[in-house]
Amino acid sequence: MIRPLRLAISGASGRMGHALLTLLDDDARFELVHAAVAPGSVHDGRPVFAGIADSPRYAHDWSQAPQVDVVVDFSGPAGLALALDHCLAHGIALVSGTTGIEAALEARLADAGKHIALLRAANFSLGVAVLTRLLREASAVLPAWDLEIVEAHHGRKQDAPSGTALALGRAAAEARQTTLETTAVYCREGRTGERVGGAIGFAVVRGGDIVGEHTAMLIGQGERLELTHRATDRSIFARGALQAAHWLAGRSAGHWQLEDVIAGPR
Ligand SMILES: NC(=O)C1=CN([C@@H]2O[C@H](COP(=O)(O)OP(=O)(O)OC[C@H]3O[C@@H](n4cnc5c(N)ncnc54)[C@H](OP(=O)(O)O)[C@@H]3O)[C@@H](O)[C@H]2O)C=CC1
Ligand SMILES: O=C(O)C1=N[C@H](C(=O)O)C[C@H](O)C1
């Protein structure tokens, strides 16, 4: 019998942590061995699975972690930085869905690919992977149409625009042989003047319990194409991340993509 992979979750007490733990209940591929939370978290020290005698406990301290095969991180920039330290120190594969990362941590992550297997995605759903492909194609076929990306999320989200919106914008920009750095418009207010040709605009909605919605609007003269993805359940992200973790554990160092996982075994 193949032993289950020893899994650590970074951000285990959060919304995505909860979605991951719910799926793990019924997934023999993994054994949860560490459940990382923030220093000072109210969950620190509590059992992860209430009523189970030998349940792992939430812990802020990675030095308490036993041997781990793969870490799945949905925490935030600070939590990801701590998980990354641990993965680099012990040669552990890392799957991360954390978004809103600043340049210094991006640079550390870029370098980490030389030492560990790393797979990051702004969105682990299958539907958004397909949306990205469709947008790439539509943007290339309709290069002169105006592109606006609208995203909506729950009121507790910490970053904007969402990582997914930025990734969609990047994919479209690439298909048009340009970059987000030169085309993105993140904010419009007051007397903005006319829309700049070739701009990729972003608009952000926050409120209530919206799980995550993204619409790419390609706007021409007399017609408009809209590509929309609506997530209604976080389990779609959790399932994708666990699939990625199963695929990534034991792989060589490097930056792997969700597309590699979807394409199948190598
Ligand atoms: N790629 C994708 O498919 C998706 C990505 N995301 C991204 O995942 C991230 C988390 O989202 P969500 O679950 O909604 O967030 P939550 O705020 O619900 O959860 C965050 C979790 O991270 C923990 N945490 C916070 N700071 C630290 C720290 N310094 N060290 C260790 N752990 C820490 C929190 O612990 P505690 O609260 O106990 O203190 C909590 O468990 C965000 O960046 C979000 O954008 C979300 C959904 C899908
Ligand atoms: O914070 C969230 O909730 C989500 N974040 C991701 C993002 O920033 O794109 C993915 C998903 O839309 C949910």
Automatic annotation (TrEMBL):
**Keyword hit for NADP:** yes
Q: What GO molecular function terms would the record report?
A: 4-hydroxy-tetrahydrodipicolinate reductase; NAD binding; NADP binding; oxidoreductase activity, acting on CH or CH2 groups, NAD or NADP as acceptor
- Tell me the keywords, alphabetical order: Amino-acid biosynthesis, Cytoplasm, Diaminopimelate biosynthesis, Lysine biosynthesis, NAD, NADP, Oxidoreductase
Q: Which biological process annotations from GO are given for this protein?
A: diaminopimelate biosynthetic process; lysine biosynthetic process via diaminopimelate
Sites where the protein binds NADP(+) = R46
Q: Where does NAD(+) bind?
A: G11, A12, S13, G14, R15, M16, D44, G97, T98, T99, A121, A122, N123, F124
State where the protein is found: Cytoplasm
Q: Which residues form the Dihydrodipicolinate reductase C-terminal domain?
A: 127-262
Annotated positions binding (S)-2,3,4,5-tetrahydrodipicolinate = H154, G163, T164
Which GO terms of the cellular component aspect does the record hold?
Answer: cytosol
Record Pfam families? DapB_C (PF05173), DapB_N (PF01113)
Q: What is its EC number?
A: 1.17.1.8
Recorded catalytic activity of this chain's protein: (S)-2,3,4,5-tetrahydrodipicolinate + NAD(+) + H2O = (2S,4S)-4-hydroxy-2,3,4,5-tetrahydrodipicolinate + NADH + H(+); (S)-2,3,4,5-tetrahydrodipicolinate + NADP(+) + H2O = (2S,4S)-4-hydroxy-2,3,4,5-tetrahydrodipicolinate + NADPH + H(+)
The family database entries (InterPro entries) matched by this protein are listed as: DapB_C, DapB_N, DapB_N_CS, DHDPR_bac, NAD(P)-bd_dom_sf
Q: Identify the residues that the record assigns to the Dihydrodipicolinate reductase N-terminal domain, covering every copy.
A: 6-124
Catalytic site: H153 (proton donor/acceptor), K157 (proton donor)
Which pathway is recorded for this entry?
A: Amino-acid biosynthesis; L-lysine biosynthesis via DAP pathway; (S)-tetrahydrodipicolinate from L-aspartate: step 4/4
> Subunit structure of this entry?
Homotetramer.
User: Any idea what job this protein has?
Assistant: Catalyzes the conversion of 4-hydroxy-tetrahydrodipicolinate (HTPA) to tetrahydrodipicolinate.
Its family?
Answer: Belongs to the DapB family.
Can you say what this protein is called? Answer: 4-hydroxy-tetrahydrodipicolinate reductase
- Taxonomic source organism: Rhodanobacter denitrificans
Q: Upper lineage ranks? A: Bacteria, Pseudomonadati, Pseudomonadota, Gammaproteobacteria, Lysobacterales
Its gene is dapB
